[in-house]
Structures are given as structure tokens and as C-alpha cells.
Amino acid sequence: MAEMIVQEKKGARQKKNPIRVDMTPMVDLGFLLITFFMFTTNFTKPNVMDLGLPAKDPNPNPINIPYIDHLNQVTFILGKDNRVFYHQSNEKELTANNLKETDFSGVQISKIISEAYSKAPKKDIFTVIIKPTDDANYKNFVDVLDNIAISKKERYGITDIKPWEKKVYENVTK
User: Fold this and answer.
1) Strand 19-21 versus strand 84-87 pairing type
2) Which residues contact 152 (CB under 8 A, 6 or more apart)?
3) Do 94 and 52 contact (CB within 8 A), yes or no?
4) The CATH fold of domain 69-173
5) DSSP E strands: which ranges in the chain?
6) Which residues touch 156 (CB under 8 Å, ≥6 apart)?
7) pLDDT tens across 113-162, in order?
8) Radius of gyration of the chain from Cα atoms?
9) The pLDDT value given to residue 31
10) What's the rounded Cα separation, in Å, for the pair 99 and 86?
11) Which has fewest Cβ within 10 Å: 94, 102, 133, 140?
């Protein structure tokens, strides 16, 4: 601890005694604190969503890519202010009436996916397509992926919104 070195001299004047602090216990305390915080800290791995991407084909052959009709898919457009729209239309049929809006409460998106799947003529190639706009946020994107996982559909795609969809989307959101 603190130790005082006292030197007594004979004389009329008495000098101030220097104080010497022993730092050895402070080093021990430092190591004890380090080990305490190491043992009490949670060493958890960050939660990461597994995004199933297809394996890269060494011999890509565009002839074998199946055409997915608009009846065999459901498209979700993620917009601003936590809004999500969906449709099952092609370029010629998509209007403001066909572009329907839903929300992220409960399992609404899972129900929409299940209903579209039950109406699909070729269920083996049924695909869910996610098209986030520039104003969409990441949380909504993850919510849609969670709902796809809940509905147990393994075929999904993520792509940019097409110009004809963007035109209808902008008319609906005005």
C-alpha cells in the first residue's frame, strides 16, 4: 500500500517526508477486473438470416430456364412508409385496381402467398418475387423473407421493380 519513508535528521529544521505509493496491488486488481469482465461478457454470435441462393451453374444454359407465368407467381412491391403492395398480373393487365395493398401485421403476407399458391396452375414452379423500391427499408424486406419462410415456399426471387410496375405503383401511392 502506501509507505512512508521517514528519515530522521538531527537538526533544527525538519524536511517533508516523500510519499512512495506501491502500485503492485493495483496491477493485481487490474487483472482481476479483466478476468471478471471476460467471464461475465456474453460471447454470442450475431443473428444472421440465411439467404438461400442457388449454386452457380458452371455451364449456364438459358434454354432450360422455365417461363413463370403471372398466375404461377405473386409479386410483392415494398414501398415507403412501411407499405407493401402485391399483384399477380402481367404488364398488360396491371392497373391500379389489381395492385392491392396489405400490411405486415400478423401473417397477412403468408396468407396471400398461400392463396396465390393454391390458385397456381403449376405449383412446382410457383415463385414469390420481392421488388423493393428505393424508398423501402431493410426491416420490411426481412419481414417479407420471414413470411416466405413461414409459408414454407422455397422458390423466391429478389429483383428491381419494372418501369411498368413503378408507373402503376406511383399512381397508387399519390
Assistant:
1) unpaired
2) none
3) no
4) Nucleotidyltransferase; domain 5 (3.30.420)
5) 2-4, 19-21, 73-78, 84-87, 100-102, 127-132, 156-158
6) 127, 128, 129, 130, 145, 148
7) 888 888 888 888 888 999 998 888 888 888 888 888 888 888 888 888 88
8) 33
9) 92
10) 6
11) 102
Residue 64 CB contacts under 8 Å (≥ 6 apart), including other chains: none
Burial 109-130 (b: 16+ CB within 10 A, else e): bbebbbebbeebeeeeebbbbb
Amino acid found at 155: R
pLDDT for residue 7:
58
Q: Which amino acid is at 58?
A: P
Q: How far apart are CA 84 and CA 7, in angstroms?
A: 84
One-character DSSP codes across 107-153 = THHHHHHHHHHHH-S-GGG-EEEEEE-TT--HHHHHHHHHHHHHTT-
**Is the model's pLDDT at 1 over the cut of 60?**
no
Count Cβ atoms within 10 A of the Cβ of residue 156 and give its class: 0-12 exposed, 13-18 middle, 19 or more buried: buried
How far apart (Å, rounded) are the C-alpha atoms in residues 86 and 132?
Answer: 11
